[in-house]
Amino acid sequence: MSAEETRAHPAWLPPEAFRALGARRVLVHGDGSIVDTVLDEVARACARYGGRVWHSPSWDVAVDLVLALRGADELPSPSAESARAAGEAALVAAGSGAVLGDEGFLLARAGEVTAVLADAPAGLLYGLFHLVRLGPAAFESTRPPERHRPALRRRMLNHWDNVAVHPVMGQVERGYAGGSIFWRDGRPRGDLARVREYARLLAACGINAISVNNVNVGRTEARLLTDRLGDVADIADVLRPYGIRVHLSVTFAAPVVLGGLPTADPVDEAVRAWWSAKTRQVYERIPDFGGYVVKADSEGQPGPFTYGRDHADGANLLAGALAPHGGVVHWRAFVYNHHQDWRDRSTDRARAAYDHFVPLDGRFAANVVLQVKFGPVDFQVREPVSPVLAAMPATRLAVELQVTQEYTGQQRHVCHLGPWWSEVLRFAPWGPGGRTVADVAAGEAGSGGGLVAVANVGDDVFWTGHPLAQANLYTVGRLAWDPRLDPRAVLDEWIALTFPPSAIADPKLVGRTLHDVMDGSWRTYERYTAPLGVGFMVHPGDHYGPDVDGYEYTRWGTYHFADRDGVGVDRSRASGTGFAGQYPPYWAHVYESPERCPDELLLFFHHVPYGHVLHSGSTVIQHIYDAHFAGVEEVEAMRGRWRTLKGLIDPAVYERVERRLDEQVRSATEWRDQINTYFFRKSGVPDAHGRRIY
Ligand code: GCV
Fold first, then answer.
1. Regarding beta strands 25-29 and 52-56, do their DSSP bridges make them parallel or antiparallel, or are they unpaired?
2. Is 406 a catalytic residue?
């Protein structure tokens, strides 16, 4: 492996972020590979910033910070011991049986000492990264005790990385950051140092599981389950010390394509035996293997339908093989007819996941997690929340987000998705004040399926192509840890870590400018792309840039139905596809009528005339014009703001972003002009402000 391969931008863990910690006298108390990771992080920080680290048992040392496993022996230093006692007292005061769990931690102060206590090593690691986030504030004497536990048990990334280069999709499907960090040209990449850096970054934002290959499983990728399992085990070894488990995407046809069986029918005994044997071998090699991810009967992937079985039969087959080893199967609910006839207005792709899966509620094994895309169609910049998330009380549900920016600017545009995800996770499907999507993903007593996000990382020096897209990865981890976090505060956290104030001449200006560039960027992107929730209008295939009718007469089921009189998809029960009726009563009622439907989703649910007046007071057509002119102005302002950072931040970051902002201005302008022109030509309605439309 060359030095070149391992040199990557430090993202949210630059050495400078460890300054406060590294200047302290630190005692680490506990054993095991994850505790060694903590020790190594602290040792590196102390070597750089003048602190000292001891690993107990150790002699009687005076310390400023102790990171201790609660079950470990008594601490040797009286000051450390009193900090631990203060932490224990705070825990008891917090109630709940004083339990921190597998991943939780407590931070408390006693005298001049900060203590981080955990029940298990992963908690200590998360506690360490919490200290990094806090910086000097972790050592303020007045700091009250804090207890942290993740809201969601599994916080997972799916990599859509191919082992062999796919002729159309390349090395990483929907990847916008170069090649894969795991695979190259059919083989493991061998740069495990880079994978280790990645694991560090993920642990620091709270991710604890990743699948390492695309859900579209080709012939080469299928073999990761069998003769190429060693390649997966090598990755697992590197991720383990950071508390991250490996999962594998498998093909449902594996017994046929790998095992030479005549069938993959889930009720066939030989098929069951094959999966059990292969899964046993996986666990012999990777004892903490997480489980399988499956895309079945979707976009050409094989599945149980071939054998006249349903998705519960299919998922339970793999669940049965995994159960003895404690593994889970993530079964994707992204199943729809991708050979639709555009002439047929009764078939509705948005309905598909509900229609396929809701009747199966209660039939899935306990170790099946049904992985549901957050919206009913496909990761658009605006969609309603999927009704499936409210309709399967007897199934473990995970919500799936897309960090890779397939439909949100492909990491050439600044589009900070934190506010959007936060909105999705806080959405209350049964009506305001009720349980939220995050509650569903958490489940009762942590029994939910958690959160899964499609990764946006590649071998690019900045990890994510666009340096500011790093914030999306950071944010998804943080929101999975705690969906109630304010996304603006998370953004500021990312800014402070990535652009540490102590290393910047004018940190206030830099922090404020970055925040202003990024915080509203999702809404800006929404303004200059497809209007009012109607979605798509992207260039077919690569999904970049505008093509209003690109999908209108195709088989993919993503239409806008614009004509000279109006636009939008009638998904009401009264006169449309009935999709609105898939929601619990509160939202079914709201979405059913164009008068009640929120503006931003109007065209998702209704076909309305261009003169329809929105809640905002504007007509649909005038809204389209106004939003698109405003969107481009906002991108231009964004670029102007960015330019004020020249000379104040790392020039490599500055220049990469500046070039991409030029492209964003170009692309947004193209969006504006194509959308406005299209609707002007269709409707014949001029812009009320007489601006230029072509
Ligand atoms: C991995 C969309 C993307 C596909 C992706 C699919 C999925 O359709 O365009 O590239 O395939 O979603 O989520 O499975």
1. parallel
2. yes
